């Protein structure tokens, strides 16, 4: 049934399985297609070329299809749909846990954003990550993953999957290509998993090189691109699958929980298979009203990302001059600055997240408290991509699932403050608020030495 339910932005479906030669060839092809007609792939251009759905009565925005189930005119049509002869690619729908027109529209936009054949949107980022890994691995198989990951993903790989599925993970320093290569067990390792820019340390993954290593051994590369939509296009650098927490930058309003899996049509369709599909059977269904909301926000994502990135670079540069230990890949002294410069989509900067290492949790909390309660610069809250600046001490919040040793290996300092830089107000207005708080903090004996 699922094989005909394509959500492609192109007409060709990728093969379900490839040998090593095919994998290496596919990586080279993806790298080559990153440049088309002499121009580098631009997510905004891809989005503008995506299919536009009009409303039921001619509205410029598509209608929300809130129905759970769908009627047919002839009994034979229903049989043909369940037999896989008719599907959403021809506007035949059965049940909204399977496919829904409004969610399908958002999925097409996500595929355009990441430059993939297909995508499917889910009820949360973690459901997208879990479904992708479960679809690509079976009991007794193996994952190689970055040591530095979002805490929920780390817990999934460390505790949940080994206990429930006997799927094990080896964690590696993702910047050490040789270590990654050695961790891959041929015939057993099925997935190499990492984040484009790591949460929370802001290390940059060498996606092209990691893909070459993985594909040489027949391993599927899954990249979490939540931190850098528009900024980095992993599939155009060789990756196979991209996952997102749409709750963050793509939503932009800190009011929606959602996720997405973007990749080959063959994979996305297999995830919707009636008998073996991880999304179909586990049921992390997105509400069509949520899908409609998100589809209206994606068109201005590029404008938002540019301003997030612009302000993050300005604030990082100025904070560094004030003597703070700032981590931001847009700064020339960041160890991965040149790497990011070579792989990012230059129009969108270096991302909207920066970190300040205050060394101890006490100092980190003091800084955040002053920034929020004295300077009115931002809010102490987890998540990212909001129009206001959000701050959290990662070690005791979003990375709290890691134990002390794992935090050390991941490079997460007890006093690491992760800051998602917002764009509300003018840049100088927000800088004055930040500087006011920092000045008061220093008066009370909390200078930070670079």
Using brief descriptors, characterize the structure shown.
single chain, carbon-sulfur lyase activity, 5-stranded mixed beta sheet, 450 residues, Aspartate Aminotransferase, domain 2, Cys/Met-Metab_PyrdxlP-dep_enz, pyridoxal phosphate, methionine gamma-lyase activity, alpha/beta, Aspartate Aminotransferase, domain 1, 2 domains, lyase
Task: Give a summary of the structure in a few sentences.
The protein is of the alpha/beta class and about 450 residues long. It is built from 16 helices and 14 strands.
Question: Would you kindly provide a written description of the structure presented here, covering whatever features stand out?
Answer:
The protein has 450 residues and is an alpha/beta fold. It has 2 domains: 2-299, Type I PLP-dependent aspartate aminotransferase-like (Major domain) (Aspartate Aminotransferase, domain 2); 301-443, Aspartate Aminotransferase, domain 1 (Alpha-Beta Complex), CATH 3.90.1150.10. The protein contains 16 helices and 14 strands. The protein has helices at residues 20-33, 43-49, 75-82, 101-114, 125-136, 151-165, 177-183, 207-216, 265-271, 278-282, 288-297, 301-321, 337-343, 361-373, 404-410, 427-443; strands at residues 35-36, 39-40, 118-122, 142-146, 168-172, 189-195, 220-224, 241-245, 259-263, 326-327, 353-357, 378-380, 389-393, 416-420. Helix 8 links the parallel strand 6 and strand 7 (220-224). Helix 2 (43-49) runs antiparallel to helix 4, helix 4 runs parallel beside helix 11 (288-297) and helix 14 crosses helix 16. It starts with 19 loop residues before the first helix and ends in a 7-residue tail after the last helix. Belongs to the trans-sulfuration enzymes family.
């Amino acid at each position: 049934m699922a094989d005909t339910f394509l959500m492609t932005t192109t007409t060709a479906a990728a093969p379900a399985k490839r040998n090593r030669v095919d994998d290496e060839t596919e990586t080279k092809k993806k790298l080559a297609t990153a440049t088309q007609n002499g121009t580098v792939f631009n997510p905004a251009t891809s989005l503008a070329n995506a299919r536009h759905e009009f409303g039921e009565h001619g509205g410029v925005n598509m209608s929300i299809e809130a129905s759970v189930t769908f009627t047919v005119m002839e009994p034979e049509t229903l049989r043909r749909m369940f037999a896989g002869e008719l599907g959403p690619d021809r506007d035949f729908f059965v049940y909204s846990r399977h496919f829904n027109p409004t969610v399908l529209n958002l999925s097409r936009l996500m595929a355009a954003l990441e430059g993939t054949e297909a995508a499917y949107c889910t009820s949360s980022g973690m459901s997208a990550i879990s479904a992708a890994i479960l679809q690509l691995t079976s009991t007794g198989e193996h994952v190689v993953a970055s040591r530095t990951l979002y805490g929920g993903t780390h817990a999934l790989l460390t505790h949940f999957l080994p206990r429930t599925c006997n799927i094990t993970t080896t964690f590696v320093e993702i910047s050490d290509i040789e270590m990654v290569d050695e961790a891959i067990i041929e015939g057993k390792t099925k997935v190499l998993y990492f984040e484009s820019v790591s949460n929370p340390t802001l290390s940059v993954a060498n996606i092209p090189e990691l893909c070459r290593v993985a594909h040489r051994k027949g391993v599927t590369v899954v990249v979490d691109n939540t931190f850098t939509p528009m900024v980095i296009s992993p599939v155009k650098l060789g990756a196979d699958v991209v996952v997102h927490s749409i709750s963050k930058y793509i939503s932009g309003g800190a009011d929606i929980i959602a996720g997405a899996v973007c990749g080959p049509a063959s994979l996305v369709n297999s995830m919707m298979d009636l008998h073996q599909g991880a999304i179909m059977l586990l049921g992390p269904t997105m509400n069509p009203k949520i899908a409609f909301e998100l589809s209206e926000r994606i068109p201005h994502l590029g404008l938002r990302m540019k301003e997030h990135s612009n302000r993050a670079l300005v604030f990082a540069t100025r904070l560094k001059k004030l003597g703070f230990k700032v981590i931001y890949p847009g700064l020339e002294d960041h160890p991965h600055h040149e790497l990011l410069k070579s792989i990012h989509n230059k129009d969108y900067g270096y991302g909207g997240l920066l970190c300040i290492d205050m060394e101890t949790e006490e100092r980190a909390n003091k800084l955040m408290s002053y920034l929020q309660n004295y300077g009115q610069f931002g809010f102490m809250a987890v998540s990212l991509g909001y129009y206001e600046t959000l701050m959290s001490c990662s070690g005791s919040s979003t990375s709290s699932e890691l134990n002390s040793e794992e935090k050390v290996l991941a490079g997460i300092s007890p006093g690491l403050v992760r800051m998602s830089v917002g764009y509300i107000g003018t840049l100088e207005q927000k800088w004055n608020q930040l500087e006011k708080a920092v000045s008061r903090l220093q008066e009370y004996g909390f200078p930070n030495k670079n």
